[in-house]
Amino acid sequence: MTDHDSVDHSSPCGSSGAGCAGGAPGPAPAAGTPGLGIFDKELLDRCISCGFCLPSCPTYALTGEETSSPRGRITLMRALETGDLAPDDPTLAEESSFCLGCRACETVCPAGVEYGQLLEQWRDHQWGGRDRPWIARVLMMLVSRPGLLRLQGLVRRHARGPGGKAGPRDATPAPSHPPNAPEQPVSLMLGCVERGLYPQVSRAVRRLCPEVDVPASQGCCGALHAHNGDSATGEKLARTLGGQLPGTILTTAGGCAAHLAHHLGRDRVRELSEYLDEREHRPAGQVTVDGRRARAALQDSCHLRNGLGVTRPPRELIAEVADYVELPGAGQCCGAAGTYALLRPADSRKVLDPKLTEVETADVDYVVALNPGCLRQLEQGLRRVRSRARAIHLAEFLALAAEPEPGRPDSGPGAADPREL
Ligand code: SF4
Ligand code: SF4
Q: Which residue ranges are recorded for the region named Disordered (predicted)?
């Protein structure tokens, strides 16, 4: 897999294909035009080529090339669907990979184009079988094998809290509930990446929301598969997980929330900030640095913001316990984008770098993330530029406010590390 600079864009669509005339958008195929069945034609035909989406697209901002914009990519999809571009055309391979899948284009589209769905269908075709990047293949294998997930058992038990073994909380489908618990059971999804890399996030949720159950047996939600060319397995895994987690599924990963909501229904799924908001949870305490209230910014989760429209709750929760600072690009992708940071590290860094500059300019102590991928991306970026700001997940941040390290007056970056709490 390459980064974008290494691809020849000598022609406007990087190809001699007839479907990509100049830099201008191609016309929508007439209704009834025969297609190859790669895409849902109704979704593809919705685009009216107005171009409203171009300014919102991070990859278009990087290159200024029509083919790297949402409209340009839809033109490529149409050319693929009608056969005007050969399936092995290099521009198709490049642009289906260069797209972050952030879905920022959906939020400004007047025609209701579901770009995220189109991208999944495109990658199903483009990345089928051996054409899938090997890193994505390895990750998908790791998260979809229950046996391999069980190898994370030590970490998972740590995430599920003291005792480690399945207790009454794990009993399904009739777990016991504390007196003030909601009627509907709430099951915490541990997340296959998060339980391995950031088990402290689930521990923090348990402290914030003691009413939640943590079922012992839970697999991957399938978002990784859906975003990497295997949407059928992505749907299957989502439905299996829906059967394993009774009631409302509570997740600390915006990307997983959007994927599960798509397949299980919006009512089944809540991301942490919206769950706390709906329950009118008021976080206790405050996060301090050098005896003052901490300054904290937010990095939105793209799929939470652009797919589910959740933006207010995390900001309000942070503002309860710290001085909230809105970064100009808080709503723009950080470049993590699932496997993107691994598949296209140079492009991922280009997307992230302006955000790191914003963090330094804002002089914040913390940048709060709502997704393990964003958290990792911010951690690595802030470390690279030797920033004093620390990336932290919302759950940890709220738990840190409620329970600063005993004997330490400060909870800031130079003091307690919430991961040790
Ligand atoms: S805003 Fe929507 S309809 Fe307009 S070009 Fe972009 S995807 Fe197509
Ligand atoms: S998903 Fe993001 S990167 Fe891809 S076309 Fe839409 S705005 Fe651009």
A: 159-185
Alpha helices in 210-366 (DSSP H): 223-226, 231-244, 254-264, 272-278, 302, 308, 312-321, 340-343, 345-362
24 C-beta closer than 6 A to ligand 1: no
SS3 labels along 76-112:
HHHHHHHCCCCCCCHHHHHHHHHCCCCCHHHHHCCCC
Closest residue by Cα to atom 4, ligand 2, is 99
User: Is the pTM of the predicted complex or chain greater than 0.90?
Assistant: no
Please indicate whether residue 105, judged by its CB atom, sits closer than 6 Å to ligand 2: yes
Cα–ligand 2 centroid distance for 333 (angstroms): 9
- In angstroms, rounded to a whole number, what is the distance separating the alpha carbons of residues 35 and 255? 31
CATH class of the structural domain 17-126 = mainly alpha
**Fold entry, domain 288-420:** Rossmann fold (3.40.50)
> Is the pLDDT assigned to residue 409 strictly greater than 50?
no
Q: Does the Cβ of 227 fall within 6 Å of ligand 2?
A: no
pLDDT at 24 over 80: no
- How big is the chain, counted in residues? 421
Residue 54 token pair: 């171009």
Q: Residue 85: CB within 6 Å of ligand 1?
A: no
CA 14 – CA 294 distance, rounded (Å):
48
Q: CATH 1.10.1060.10 occupies which residues in the chain? A: 17-126
Distance (Å) from CA 54 to ligand 2 centroid: 9
In short, whether 35's Cβ falls inside 6 Å of ligand 1 is no
User: For residue 405, what is the DSSP state?
Assistant: P
